[in-house]
Every structure is written in structure tokens, then in C-alpha cells.
């Protein structure tokens, strides 16, 4: 609340003047159940904290007022909100007819309440049948409606209800980019859609560090440890009640067999919930020593319970939405959340038709820890929503406008609605420098930071974290929303676990290093790690010559020689993550020694280190410098001096470069004969010097069937950073189930 009180005073005056006569916006927030209150409460606190702008009226209805569901209206009172009206709208029966009758009863009672309150705007959340009654009443009484979490996709009748409310609502607050696009596709006015994130994330992302052991012990017992218990929350599927009850029975059987302490929450008020409660009692769940069955847990405490659980199981939207913020493993059962965007922490068991299948899922997921996911929010939803509310002009016509196709290609919000550019934090760990950049979805490097790469593991990791935190903070100032962190590093990498297995000799103390965990924990962002050669290939696939190409190979020619192979649009890692070590293709049995310990590798001939070695030999024999060249005594001999000498007619330098180009060309021929790509991309500082030599070798040595392959020089200015960004932008956790 203190935060909201300290918002800009000047902006407040401007908005008040716009609406004229210092009119306060009268906002009615109607809450129907424990789930929607967890999303609405942060907004209510924000509204309450700005009395100079808003008047808040709270209406409570639905299962909040039913003893069997925990009388959850009490938590609203405990949060110090004055409840203006309580409406008993639930017709008991917990079947399809009772849901219809409950909607009808709400429609009968709501007009009188709304006539008395006369709100300027009503805030309605989600997709429950109670919310449909609220939206219908407000729309027919010419009250503006702000709908929270529209545009999302899931299973059951909730989908239809959510989209019906969308058509009744005048303003929309959505949580994800996909939801925003769905609303636009549904012909909603672009200017009345705010991509804010989920309001509950404002509380979630600051909750995990609070004291939690007392909460765990209170609900699960004194002997329970963190990551050693399960939270189960399963609701009936109203479009297939019989099957969902059977699935619930199988879930309980699996949990009993799994033999871990489990907190089971009672289902919601939907049709079929009574039968599910009967199943719980039939199996003795309320008296089983391993189970704690409860009707309601306050949201603040529920956050702590799921944040430190070994697993969450069920079909609640909380599992696929909020729990991802903590990286807690989730088992999503059945079809109730079909279509939801989920993080990698969610394992879907759509056809949970046997106890063994659910038990196997528990064995796979229990006790794991996944990267934190921010698919549904970044912790700043409420300030955006309040700003959006203040921008509403009550003088505008109430009648909705629909934007029918064709939909604009470039959809954007007004800047006042704080629409950020989706971006990635890219990290490039080189032998000399450590670089961090903010990279946009279009491949634009918005801001870049460079430091010398420290020599020790501790200093290097500390510097990575420091630079990433600074860049993430700066992203807010440059209007970028960070989706995750991508790291490009030399050596052999296990991208599944985010671990550097073995380093090159250029980066010291960099073997068996877990990069994902510390960075993900520090930034609350998902983290991807891969080899620098693979990252260069990903950069080409997304931003460069490889865009739209099914099979291609990228070769990096720099300090070392590396690369990446893309086959059927996918990057090849190999069984031990050693694929595409192209610099270590042997092209001569008795060639020079390579840093890998072998002889005759491409890298031993054509890398920057190899050219520098040969340049030093020439210089030591006074055979490097020719007319037009000069060097200071203390100047270090580099590959650049060799190239300069060759350009000025030094025949020995020319011979060395010719041999290096031939070695690289022979390596490319081997690649063509092995994976048969349609394109070879040369990247790095030496690419322009080698491209013609490589083409000549292909023309002389390759089979006729591959001689026509295209060999091009990369046009990307910074493939390492762009490739690291591609890890995030291409493999972000926004998977659709």
C-alpha cells in the first residue's frame, strides 16, 4: 500500500483534470470465490491506497458465503476491506442444473445492488459462472466492465464463459502475449486491451523469502520438511463429470501408494464437486495419517505451501499459472487446462486413466526443482492496471466498438499503457571478455555491457550475476520485458541441465559448472545455456542466412574453430553433447598439434591461435615483415600481422593462409559428405579470408552431388550474443499444451 501512495502526484492531477470536476472513479469489485479473490485483492489494495482517485465498493457472492467452502469472505474482512453487499447466490446441488439456477439467482439479485452503488466501472475476473452473471448484469445496466484474464484458453465450459464475458466487457487486462493476440483476433478494440500480467504475481514474486516453516508445520504437521510433501487440488470437469470423478479416485489411490504427506484441498463449487467429496470420504482421506484435507487455505499461506512443496498435482489453473513462479514441479491431470501456456515445470497427464500412470508421473516429478517462470507476470501488474483505470475517459461513448478483420500486422499499445518490448538477456563468455546484452525479439541489441572475463570461477560467476542484475534493471528504463537469460560459452555443455561439462583451455576453472541454478534463483527468470558454436547456428537460424533453411551448418572462424549443425530445422547436440565440434575434424594424420591434444585438426591449421603461432615463427626468423609493415618492439605478434603480410606480397604468409584455407575446406567437404546440408555459413573474424579457399576446395575435392552447395559469409554483427538471445526467444517456456 505504501508503494501505491508514493506514485507520481503530478500524473494524478493530470488525469483528474481530464475527467473533469475532480471526479473520483467509483470502482465496484465483485468477488465470487477464493481463487478470484487472490487475483483481485492486489488490485483492491492498489485502489484503496489512492482514495484521491478511486472509491472502492466490494460485493461478495458465490461460494465465499458457503460454510462447506470455508466461508472465505472472512479473509476479505481480515484484509480490512469493507464489504458493501453480501449476496447468497449459490443454489445447492452441485450439478449442472444448480449452476444454471445460481446464475439466474444472481441475475435476480444484482440489479438492486448495482442501482444503489451506481459504479462507474465494475471489475470482473476470469471464467466462472458467477462472473458471467456479474458481467451480464453490468452490461445490461450500462456499467462499464473491466475483465481480468480474458483471452486465455483452457478446457471445460470455462472457456466459453470467459470468451462470453470478453464480448460483454469494455476493457480487458490480459496476462500473456498470446492472450492479447486472442483478444485482438476476437475483434476487441486494441486501445482497450492492456497486457499487464497476472495481479497475483505481484505478491508471488516477493513471497518466497518470507518465513515459511511455521506455515508448513501448521498445515502438514511438525515432522514435515520442505520439498517432502505434496499439494493436491482437483476440481470437477463440468463437461465430463463422470470421467473427472473417476480420475480423482485414481489420483487419490496413486497418492496413497506414493506414501508422502499430502495436503488435499476440497474442490470448488462446480457441478460434480459433491461426488468428489464423497470419493474423499469413501477412501478415508480426512482421517488418513498421510493426508490433511482442508476446505480453504489463505492465499498468503497457500503461496508458501506450493513454493516449498515437492510437487503439486491436480487440474487447478494455479498449478499451470502461479506455481511456475517458484519452479515447483506440477502434474496437470486431464483436460481442464488444455490450451493453457505452461512452463517446463508442468508435466501433463491428459489421459490419466490408470493409477500407475499417475504414480509414474509422481515418481518423475516429485522433488525436482525447475527454473522460475514469468510467463504470467513480472510482478508489476497492479501499477499498470491502476494507470489503465486512470486513463479511462468516462465521457467516451459507452457503446463498444469491434475491430473486425483484417487485423493490423503490427499491434501495439499506447505508450501510456506501458507496453514493453519482449526481450532476452544474452550472455557471451569468451576467452577474453564477458559480455551481457539486452536483445529484442527482432534481434536488435538494445544495450550491451562488456567486462574482462575473470580468471577464477567465483569471480566469474559473481560478475555474471552482477552484470545480469544491472542489465535487468536497465531493461525497465528502456521499455523491455525480459523473458529469460541465454548464455553462450565455450566448451562442452549439457543444455538440458544448464551445466558446462568441460571447458576449453581459453576459459579456466570452467568445468562441471551449473550456470542455470544460481542465475535463475537470483533473477527469477528461466535460464538456457549452450555451446558458442551452437549459439552461432541458432543466431543464423533466427536472424541470419539460415532463416527458413531446413539443413545448414555454421562454422565459426575465430580464436578457435567451432560450429553448429541444424538438421530439419533443429539443432543437433548429439548423445553426449559433443556434436558439431567441427574444429576437431582431423584433416591430416601428421599435422600440427591441436589444443585438444590431437594432431592435424582444422583448428590446428585455421584458427586465430594457429595463425598467430605461424606468424610468430616467421617473425622469429625475420621473415614476417615486408615493405609497408612495421611493428613496435613490445607489440605482440597476432594473426592480423600474418594476414597483412600476405596482402603485401609475403609469399610465406600467403602459403600459410593457403594451407589454412585448404584445411578448412577439407573439413567442410567432410561435413558435406556426412550431413549433406544445403548451406554452409562461415562466421567470425576470419570468414572473409577463407570463403574463396573453401569454395575452391569443394570444387576440387567434393562429390559432384554436393558441389553446388552455397557457402556464404555471415552478415550478423554479433552472432554469439544473438545466438544466446535465440535460446530464450526460440525456446522460451511458453509452450502450448
Structural description of this entry:
The protein has 737 residues and is of the alpha/beta class. It folds into four domains: 22-198 and 385-391, Glycogen Phosphorylase B (Rossmann fold); 208-365, Glycogen Phosphorylase B (Rossmann fold), CATH 3.40.50; 413-544, ATPase, nucleotide binding domain (Nucleotidyltransferase, domain 5, 2-Layer Sandwich), CATH 3.30.420; 545-715, 2-Layer Sandwich (Nucleotidyltransferase, domain 5), CATH 3.30.420.40. 39% of the residues lie in helices and 19% in strands. It has 25 helices and 28 strands. It has a seven-stranded parallel beta sheet with strand order 3-2-1-4-5-6-7, sandwiched between helices. The protein has a six-stranded parallel beta sheet with strand order 10-9-8-11-12-14, covered by helices on one side. Helix 5 packs parallel to helix 6 (129-140). It is elongated and about 100 Å long. It catalyses: UDP-N-acetyl-alpha-D-glucosamine + H2O = aldehydo-N-acetyl-D-mannosamine + UDP + H(+); an N-acyl-D-mannosamine + ATP = an N-acyl-D-mannosamine 6-phosphate + ADP + H(+). This is Bifunctional UDP-N-acetylglucosamine 2-epimerase/N-acetylmannosamine kinase. One of its GO terms (biological process) is UDP-N-acetylglucosamine metabolic process. One of its GO terms (molecular function) is UDP-N-acetylglucosamine 2-epimerase activity. Homodimer. Homotetramer. Homohexamer. The hexameric form exhibits both enzyme activities, whereas the dimeric form only catalyzes the phosphorylation of N-acyl-D-mannosamine.
Amino acid at each position: 500500500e505504501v508503494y501505491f501512495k508514493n506514485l507520481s502526484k503530478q500524473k494524478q492531477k493530470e488525469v483528474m483534470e481530464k475527467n473533469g470536476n475532480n471526479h473520483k472513479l467509483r470502482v465496484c469489485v465483485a468477488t465470487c470465490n477464493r481463487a478470484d479473490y487472490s487475483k483481485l485483492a492486489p488490485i483492491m489494495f492498489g485502489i484503496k491506497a489512492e482514495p484521491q482517485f478511486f472509491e472502492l465498493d466490494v460485493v461478495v457472492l458465490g461460494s465465499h458465503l458457503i460454510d462447506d467452502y470455508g466461508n472465505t469472505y472472512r479473509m476479505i474482512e481480515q484484509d480490512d476491506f469493507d464489504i458493501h453487499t453480501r449476496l447468497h447466490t449459490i443454489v445447492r446441488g452441485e450439478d449442472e442444473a444448480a449452476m444454471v439456477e445460481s446464475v439466474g439467482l444472481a441475475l435476480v439479485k444484482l440489479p438492486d445492488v448495482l442501482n444503489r452503488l451506481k459504479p462507474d466501472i465494475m471489475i470482473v475476473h476470469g471464467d466462472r459462472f458467477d462472473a458471467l452473471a456479474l458481467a451480464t448484469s453490468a452490461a445490461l445496466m450500462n456499467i462499464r466492465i473491466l475483465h481480468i484474464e480474458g483471452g486465455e484458453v483452457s478446457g471445460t465450459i470455462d472457456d466459453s464463459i470467459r470468451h462470453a464475458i470478453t464480448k460483454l466487457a469494455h476493457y480487458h487486462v490480459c496476462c500473456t502475449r498470446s492472450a492479447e493476440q486472442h483478444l485482438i483476433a476476437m475483434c476487441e478494440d486494441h486501445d482497450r486491451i492492456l497486457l499487464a500480467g497476472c495481479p497475483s504475481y505481484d505478491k508471488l514474486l516477493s513471497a518466497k523469502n518470507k518465513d515459511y516453516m511455521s506455515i508448513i508445520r501448521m498445515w502438514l504437521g511438525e515432522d514435515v520438511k520442505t520439498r517432502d510433501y505434496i499439494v493436491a487440488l482437483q476440481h470437477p470437469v463440468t463437461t465430463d463429470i463422470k470421467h473427472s470423478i473417476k480420475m480423482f479416485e485414481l489420483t487419490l489411490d496413486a497418492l496413497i501408494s506414493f506414501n508422502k504427506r499430502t495436503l488435499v484441498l476440497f474442490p470448488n463449487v462446480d457441478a460434480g464437486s459433491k461426488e468428489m467429496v464423497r470419493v474423499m470420504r469413501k477412501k478415508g482421506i480426512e482421517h488418513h495419517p498421510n493426508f490433511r484435507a482442508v476446505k480453504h487455505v489463505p492465499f498468503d499461506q497457500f503461496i508458501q505451501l506450493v513454493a516449498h512443496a515437492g510437487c503439486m498435482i491436480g487440474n487447478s489453473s494455479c498449478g499451470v499459472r502461479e506455481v511456475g513462479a517458484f519452479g515447483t514441479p506440477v502434474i496437470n491431470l486431464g483436460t481442464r487446462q488444455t490450451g493453457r501456456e505452461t512452463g517446463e515445470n508442468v508435466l501433463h497427464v491428459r489421459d490419466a486413466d490408470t493409477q500407475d500412470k499417475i504414480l509414474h508421473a509422481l515418481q518423475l516429478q516429485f522433488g525436482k526443482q525447475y527454473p522460475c517462470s514469468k510467463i504470467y507476470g513480472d510482478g508489476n501488474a497492479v501499477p499498470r492496471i491502476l494507470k489503465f483505470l486512470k486513463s479511462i475517459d468516462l465521457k467516451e461513448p459507452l457503446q463498444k466498438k469491434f475491430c473486425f478483420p483484417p487485423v493490423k500486422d503490427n499491434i501495439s499499445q499506447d505508450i501510456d499503457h506501458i507496453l514493453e518490448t519482449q526481450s532476452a538477456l544474452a550472455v557471451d563468455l569468451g576467452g577474453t571478455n564477458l559480455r551481457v546484452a539486452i536483445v529484442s525479439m527482432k534481434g536488435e541489441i538494445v544495450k550491451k555491457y562488456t567486462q574482462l572475463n575473470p580468471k577464477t570461477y567465483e569471480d566469474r560467476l559473481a560478475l555474471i550475476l552482477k552484470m545480469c542484475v544491472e542489465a535487468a534493471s536497465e531493461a525497465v528504463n528502456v521499455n523491455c520485458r525480459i523473458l529469460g537469460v541465454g548464455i553462450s560459452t565455450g566448451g562442452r555443455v549439457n543444455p538440458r541441465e544448464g551445466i558446462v561439462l568441460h571447458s576449453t583451455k581459453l576459459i579456466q576453472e570452467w568445468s562441471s559448472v551449473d550456470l542455470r541454478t544460481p542465475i535463475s534463483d537470483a533473477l527469477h527468470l528461466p535460464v538456457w545455456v549452450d555451446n558458442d558454436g551452437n549459439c552461432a547456428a541458432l543466431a543464423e537460424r533466427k536472424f541470419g542466412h539460415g532463416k527458413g533453411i531446413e539443413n545448414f551448418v555454421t562454422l565459426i572462424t575465430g580464436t578457435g574453430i567451432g560450429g553448429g549443425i541444424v538438421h530439419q530445422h533443429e539443432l543437433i547436440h548429439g548423445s553426449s553433447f559433443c556434436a558439431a565440434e567441427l574444429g576437431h575434424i582431423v584433416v591430416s594424420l601428421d599435422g600440427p598439434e591441436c589444443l585438444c591434444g590431437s594432431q592435424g585438426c582444422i583448428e590446428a591449421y585455421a584458427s586465430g591461435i594457429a595463425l598467430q603461432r605461424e606468424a610468430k615463427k616467421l617473425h622469429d626468423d625475420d621473415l614476417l615483415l615486408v615493405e609497408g609493415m612495421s611493428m613496435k618492439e613490445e607489440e605482440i605478434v597476432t594473426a592480423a600481422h600474418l594476414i597483412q603480410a600476405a596482402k603485401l606480397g609475403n609469399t610465406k604468409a600467403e602459403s600459410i593462409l593457403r594451407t589454412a584455407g585448404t584445411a578448412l575446406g577439407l573439413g567442410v567437404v567432410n561435413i558435406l559428405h556426412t550431413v549433406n546440408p544445403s548451406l554452409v555459413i562461415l562466421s567470425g573474424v576470419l570468414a572473409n579470408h577463407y570463403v574463396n579457399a573453401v569454395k575452391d576446395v569443394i570444387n576440387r575435392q567434393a562429390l559432384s552431388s554436393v558441389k553446388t552447395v552455397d557457402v556464404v559469409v555471415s552478415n550478423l554483427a554479433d552472432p554469439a550474443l544473438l545466438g544466446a538471445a535465440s535460446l530464450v526467444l526460440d525456446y522460451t517456456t511458453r509452450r502450448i499444451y
